[in-house]
Amino acid sequence: MIYELFYPLKFHYGWLSWLNVLRYIPFRTIMATITAMVLTFVLAPWFIRELRRKQIGQVVRAEGPETHKIKAGTPTMGGALILLSLLLPTVLWADLRNPFVLATTAVTAGYGVIGYLDDFLKIKRRNSGGLPGRYKLIGQVLIGGAAVAYTFLLASKLPPDWAEIRTRLAIPFVAFSKYPIELPLYVYIPFAVFVVVATSNAVNLTDGLDGLAIGPVIINAGTYLILAYIVGASIANFSLATYLDIPAIASAGELSVYCGSVIGAGIGFLWYNTYPAQVFMGDVGSLALGGGLGMLAVFTKNELLSIILGGIFFIETVSVITQVLSFKLTGKRVFLMAPIHHHYEKKGWAEPKIIVRFWIISILLALVSLASMKLR
Which residues, in sequence order, are CB contacts of 179 under 8 Å at separation 6+? Predict the structure, then answer.
């Protein structure tokens, strides 16, 4: 909004030539990050007080670890604050005519509504059941499907460089131009929707300890910020993406502003969510942030790389699937408890140790993901 309203003024008033800085994505990304962080820091104390006043507290599942019993009643649904602090700076600093920004923010907001309904029902019923899984999944597929269909099917109204490569699958550590994999639209669209929905639910499963989910979310968003900027950046008509032999999508660079907002809102929230947490994000935050990361993977053509980059989320999901299948097929459990972070809790690891070690692994995976741009 700021970009659209104020940048044109430089052409009409000479003394406003300094507004030229608004055309640069790095500047607007930095400003979005700062805006999101300041918003969170300013609003969080009031927001937490209101959650306490309205008795919007965490409902701990009965079969959870004993150490979690003391967390019952801790204010939850803090993800609503993350969404406000994420979406508002994106609207202010991003180019709202950009289809990738529109689709990504729409999914983030839509998944936030689904998460809000889930959290609301948990609190109302005073149990950890919430919204039935099938309804959550249907809502996620419909919202994600609409956003993906918009960016995959309306080729005539979208950037030509995206329309040309939108159904090509990028393989990590493999040159994009030399080994292309072209998928039919009827295959790629369901695949892209699966990536978005799976990432959303994976982040949701990871959100089980104080700061455990938001840390990797910030790290992932920071990595996507770099990836988005590189796939869209041209310096003196020299394309960085072409040089690195990764997908070149000029309009995807604008997603850096969204990523900056995620980082700023995430850091601000982590101040209050770090152990011992003063507030939890709830499904309103985890589902929305995961959906946003999934859309970033699709629009930067890093759907497969997201398995490496989001390795923590992937491992958490696989641990749950493995546990369920093993118990149904053999009657035995592979882990002491799933998701896997609870397994380490049962083994006696202190909660901060699990959290920080998972963050370290996430940083390592982010570095490997960035290195994949050169190792081809």
Answer: 171
* Residues 68/273, Cβ–Cβ less than 8 Å: no
Beta-bridge mates of residue 181: 169
**Over the stretch 169-195, which tens digit does the pLDDT of each residue have?**
999 999 988 877 899 999 999 999 999
**150: its two tokens:** 């918009």
The pLDDT assigned to 234 comes to 77
CA–CA distance from 360 to each of 225, 356, 365 (Å)?
Answer: 19, 6, 9
3-state SS, residue 275: coil
Give the distance between the most distant pair of CA atoms in the chain. Answer: 75
Q: Which of 320, 100, 94, 312 is nearest to 192 (CA)?
A: 100
Helix axes 99-125, 133-153, angle to 10 degrees: 170
* 52 DSSP 8-state letter: H
Q: Give the integer Cα–Cα distance in Å for 142 and 231.
A: 28
Q: Could you tell me the pTM of the whole model?
A: 0.93
Structure-token pair, residue 173: 């550590």
What whole-number distance in Å separates Cα of residue 22 and Cα of residue 10?
Answer: 10
What residues does 235 pair with on adjacent strands? 238
Residue 313: closest CA among 340, 347, 344, 283: 340
Bigger pLDDT: 340 vs 239: 340
- The residue assigned the tokens 């039919």 is 184
Q: What would the two tokens of residue 212 be? A: 């455990």
**Alpha carbon distance 269, 265 (integer Å):** 6
Q: Are strands 234-235 and 168-169 parallel, antiparallel or unpaired?
A: unpaired
Question: How far is 112 from 114, CA to CA, in rounded Å?
Answer: 5
* SS3 category, 331: coil
Amino acid at 59: V
Please compute the mean of the pLDDT values over residues 229-234 and round it to a whole number: 89
